């Protein structure tokens, strides 16, 4: 008996389930070594019931594996496409490419776009030239809000000077402010992670730079290292952050000479109190938001300018960016100016009994210093049982006189 060679070496026969978009279904027998193209040809012959008269019929169809939703490659065999017995395949007609638009359609589309285009500034001004001015109250409201922020800061600056003078007259002032200074030390959040600092210094970075990088990056060693590498050529890289004393400055402060023996006790007491005031002020200096500093510096602004912008705008990054791009008003120097001490507003504040009593409390001075440099902390002091009543009276007096 004669047996053809191709039958002897034919691959395993699979029964594949074929489905079309019209809902026709049948089983197609195919060997593993059959190509997908041959399988598709067999399916199309079954589908059209005969030979393929139009050669495009073959190229305009494709087989898709239903379970995996992948298009089968026609040059590969059934085995290479990993088809199994009783797998379901979809015979799909390819979508024809979209017809190119006609010139008339393109013209009408462009005309439609032009009609829907937003008006430019010139068109707006021309259309609104004859309209009367309205809604001016909004501008006045914004102006008053700005005045409130500016005046409140001026009030705090002047009240700090008054409070320092009053507290200096207290015989126990030095001891009171030493306690206040110690209280600030307990609340100090600007500590440096020694382990993180050691890792950076062991990499070869200078300690002062490493400290600055860690403070800017919330003590993250990885982010601090990236910052140090990025700013290695920055001329301002060694400029300390506000409130960050350099080791040399700390050593100089420690080595500061004591008052001469011939100086009077009162002068020595005043000098000591002045130094305590300076230390308290230094600890309460403005602390810029590290993320905002990095983001604004990456835009190309100088570090000092960025810190000034954030200080003027209460650590608000967007407002600081607008300030840097605008006329830069108010200036950082304007923030240190006090209110006119002869003004009715300041006189009314000083005559208030609650304010008078509060100005003799060292904690009130600390609150004023903190709010002056970090306005966002005002809520904390408003809720404090000792400083809250003072702040409430100042606010009420300001609002009353502002309305009149």
TrEMBL record:
Subcellular location(s) of the protein: Cytoplasm
Domain UBA: 191-231, 287-327
UniProt-annotated stretches for the region Disordered: 94-119, 240-265
Pathway connected to this protein: Protein modification; protein ubiquitination
Chief location: cytoplasm
Biased composition (Low complexity): 249-264
Keywords: Cytoplasm, Repeat, Ubl conjugation pathway
Pfam families reported for this sequence: UBA_7 (PF22562), UBL_UBAC1 (PF23326)
Keyword Repeat in record: yes
Signal peptide range: none
Keyword Zinc-finger: no
A single cellular component GO annotation: ubiquitin ligase complex
Any GO BP: protein ubiquitination
Skewed-composition ranges (Basic and acidic residues): 108-119
Full protein name: Ubiquitin-associated domain-containing protein 1
Organism: Sinocyclocheilus anshuiensis
Lineage of origin: Eukaryota, Metazoa, Chordata, Craniata, Vertebrata
